Amino acid sequence: MRCAILGSGNIGTDLMMKLMKGTDASGSGVTPLELVALVGIDPQSDGLARARRLGIEGPHEGPDWIVDHADDIDMVFDATSAYVHVAHAERYKEAGIVAVDLTPAAVGPKVIAAVNLTEHLDAPNINMVTCGGQATTPMVYAIRRAIDLLPYAEMVSTVSSRSAGPGTRQNIDEFTKTTSTALREIGGAQTSKAIIILNPAEPPIMMRNTVFGGLPEGTDHDAVIESIYAMEKDVQKYVPGYRLKNPPVIEEGPYLTPGGEVPHRAVVLLEVEGAGDYLPPYAGNLDIMTAAAQRIGEAIAHHKADQKAGA
Amino acid sequence: MSADYRLIDSTLRDGSHAISHQYYADDVIKIVQGLDAAGVQVFEIAHGDGIGGSSFNYGFSAVPEKELIARACEVTTNAKIACLLLPGIGLADDLREVNEMGVQVARIAVHCTEADITEQHIKVAKSLGMEAIGFLMMAHANSPEGLVEQAKLLQSYGADTIYIADSAGAMTTEDVRRRVNALVENIDVPIGVHAHNNLSMAVANSIAAYEEGAKNLDGTSAGLGAGAGNCPTEILAAVSTKYGIETGVDPFALMDLAEEVVRPLMPRQQVIDRAGLILGYAGVYGSFLLHAQRAAERYNVPVAEILLELGERKVVGGQEDMIIDVALELVTKHAEQEKAGKDTTA
Known about the structure:
Mean pLDDT of chain A: 95
Largest sheet of chain A: 6 strands, mixed
Shape of chain A: globular
Oligomer: heterodimer
CATH class of the largest domain in chain B: Alpha Beta
Largest interface: A-B, 38 and 37 residues
Mean pLDDT of chain B: 96
CATH class of the largest domain in chain A: Alpha Beta
Strand content of chain A: 25-35%
Low-confidence stretches of chain B: none
Radius of gyration of chain B: 20 Å
CATH superfamily of the largest domain in chain A: NAD(P)-binding Rossmann-like Domain
Number of helices of chain A: 9
CATH topology of the largest domain in chain B: TIM Barrel
Strand content of chain B: 5-15%
Strand order of the largest sheet of chain B: 1-2-3-4-5-6-7-8
CATH superfamily of the largest domain in chain B: Aldolase class I
Structural class of chain A: alpha/beta
CATH architecture of the largest domain in chain B: Alpha-Beta Barrel
Number of domains of chain A: 2
CATH topology of the largest domain in chain A: Rossmann fold
Number of helices of chain B: 14
Structural class of chain B: alpha/beta
């Protein structure tokens, strides 16, 4: 499947480096994605120069280039900003180009690679929530599947100041709102909260994510812990640097959550080390987005190929 | 008589940390009445970590804070009401909601190097006609020049007043003087200082800030607050009077409030114990204190070790989850040390 990346900043360039390796997101197969171009708006950008060096196109005409090349590309990874994505999403759809949206615009259905990868393979537009959402929703889901009902889940994401770009900084409410929604809609929590913290320490800290889940009376704590470990392995299939920093723990309350009082909580302390494709390893927040985008793009490509073969 | 500085009382916000966010409506009413009686012009009310702070990470409020804010708005006869909001924890939508209730001052708080995440929230506050105060936390962790740079950003977004907060109670008087002086020299809007008492410097630092040109000072009744507590308003008012600084508030009414209303509420008096002192010494965010004590008990590791490690890791306000992380790592470390000790004796 022929694709282009829109946005030649950190995320777009890192995704390009991943796709140019030729291997798929698991690292063991061949990617079905053929990268045609990295599209930016600044002809001087480092990302576009790299694209040309790698032998693909590096135009700077932005979203217009994508729409003008509808015959040459089937999919666009949008790594611009929520504002830009909202402004052009309809044009990609009309041009018949599948959009995988890495901004928090939330135009299309939300997909978390480790949870609902195959749920929206026919959608014209897929939203990838946020980096914190990709990192924590799987663990909320892991807790939820081990119990009948998860009354409340919470995530706290701390990223190094250096890896939080201007888009995140100017729209920090979009990050927390979109992430919190994903904890409910995809993670399965009844109520939720998302928190993001920026830490300026030097050398930069690795992305840290903590998931708290409220455990109702009668929860099988061992089942919760087991489910968390299983999910760690699932995410590692496409983000090798994703790991439990410490063993998950169950702490005793009671806790007066918005979803009602619970006697215990599960605490999942996560760390994400980036693969260092373009960005340094501390920028795990960006790496988990690009790795998940590749995973989702490949799932769509395989699905379309199967459909074609079947037809 | 006009006041030489504006006293902003934060008993109902920063004080909330010290009682693990267990304020009830009756407490709020009594405290608001006491503040009004003393002539306090502005008081702040919210969860200790700002609007939206009620959470696993920071502790759940006993009563939803917006209910308490609504009560405070109904009861006050004199003061303007402020709310704290930390972008990343609370939302601009929360400002809209509390503004409708009658909150007129928005304090937008951010780590002292990250001012650019406040633009959205300061602009919303201004569009609602609120006074917007930019609030740079953990100010000991940035240089005077660095703080000026950050304050300029806040000013460019429309902040009416800019505060530096000594959230770790880590600053000496000299640290405060240099920072306030740089801000007063380079920033057009009034400057404020929010002091904590971990090094027993809160009142002295507040007076020094005033002498350098700060026009706003924060405090709480009886020093109720995060860490070893805040600058106690009744003491600040009394000391100011002795310096001949006009506060516009009645120190005796503030003493009554502290003695008769706030002290009886306190689960522990606001003393500078070992853990509180370490916060100031190591420059660790004050509201970590009670969370660290709970983790220390739960995992049977020394609270001092937890706090020192948090200082080493340079955690910032809001990273309370790292307290559990550190405690679990200390458990592992101690187990390994014990094992190594046994191996050598064997």
